[in-house]
Amino acid sequence: MSLLAIDVGAGTQDILLYDQEVPLEGSTKMVLPSQTVLVGNRINRARMMGRNVFLCGPTMGGGSSTAAVRWHLAAGLKVSAAPSAAATINDDLEKVAAIGVVICDEAQADELVVETGDIDIAALRKAFALFDIDLPQDIAVAVQDHGFSPHRSNRLCRFQCLAQAIRSGGRLEDFAYRDPPENMTRMLAVHGVLKAAGCRPMLMDTGPAALFGAALDLGDDRPALIINFGNGHTVAAVLAAGRITGILEHHTSELTAEKLRSLVQQLCQGTIKNSEVFQDGGHGAYVDSIPGKIERVLVTGPRRQSFLSCGAIKGAVAASPGGDMMITGCIGLLEAWKKREELWR
C-alpha cells in the first residue's frame, strides 16, 4: 500500500508519503506553505508591480488569498475572476461582484493570470521527482470545507455537515468520502483536480482528520478530550469508544486561556450551545452524547505550545503520532483510508 496524504491548513500543507514497507517515522514528509498562502503571495507581488490580475481555477480555501484580493482592490487595481475561482471569496457571486471583482471567463491582455486551487499536483510531482519519487495513484486530502451556503452563514452549513457525520456514527470512516457530498464545494474541487490527474481520491475535513490522528496516542477507548490548535482554527472534541460524541470549533486568534477553559468545560459537560459559540464568532458546537467523566486531554497542532505554556488546559499532554506533530492530520487521513478501503471493497 502506498498513499499520499495531504492536510491543507490555513498556513501550511502538511504532506506524508506512506509506504507500508517503510517505518512510519522514516516516511517521506514535507511541510510547505498552503496554496492559499501561495496564491495570496502571487496576488501581492502583482500589486507591488501595479498589475491587474485574473483568477482562474477551482474553488479553494480563502484566508490569505481572499485578503490579497481585497488589498489589490483597495490599491485601485483590477481583479477579475472566473466563476469557480470567484466562489473562493464568497458562494454568492453577486457579493463578490459587489466588492469590485469582475466575474468573467477569460483574462484581458493587461492582466496577470493567477491560478487557484488547494492542490497543485504538477508542482508536487515535480518536487518528488527531484528525489526520484513517483506520486502514488491513491491520494487522500483534508480541507476545511464550509459547504455551499450563498444566502446564510457558511459556518452554520459547516456544522450541520459535521453534526450529520456524528449522528451517522461519529467514527473515523463516517467523515471520509470517496465522493464528497454535493454541498461540499471545496472537497469537490479537490476531488475534480485529483480525478483529472488520474488519481484515486479520498476527502476529509481537516478537523476530524487531526482529531482522529492524535487519538492514536491514547492507546485505549476511554473517554478523552482532544484539541487541535491550528494556525487559523481550533477544534476540540470528546472521543469515546472510537467515535466523536461532541465537537466545537473557534478561531484560534479569538481564544484566550479563560475562554478556552470555559468552552471545553461546557463541551465535556454537554452544556455547550451552538448558538453561543456562533454568536461569539466561532464556527459552532454539537453534542450527541456525554460518555462519562473525562480524565485525559491530548493537544496537537502548530499553535498548541502557546496554550500549553499558559496552563490553559491542566493535565494536557502533547500528541505526536508517528513522532511528528505536523503530520497528525495526515495520520488521520491514513487511518481513514485503511478503514474506508475495507468498506469500499
Write the layout of secondary structure elements.
Layout: E1 2-8, E2 12-19, E3 28-33, H1 35-49, E4 52-56, H2 64-74, E5 79-81, H3 83-86, H4 93-98, E6 102-103, E7 111-115, H5 121-129, E8 138-143, H6 154-167, H7 185-196, E9 200-205, H8 206-215, E10 224-229, E11 233-240, E12 243-251, H9 257-269, H10 274-279, E13 284-287, E14 297-300, H11 304-309, E15 316-318, H12 328-344
Parallel strand pairs: 1-8, 4-5, 4-7, 5-6, 8-9, 10-14, 14-15
Antiparallel strand pairs: 1-2, 2-3, 10-11, 11-12, 12-13
Tell me about this structure.
α1 packs parallel to α2 and α8 packs across α12. 36% of the residues lie in helices and 24% in strands. 48% of the residues are buried. The chain folds into 2 domains: 1-32 and 119-345, no CATH class; 35-115, 3-Layer(aba) Sandwich (Rossmann fold), CATH 3.40.50. By secondary structure, it is α/β, with parallel strands linked by helices.
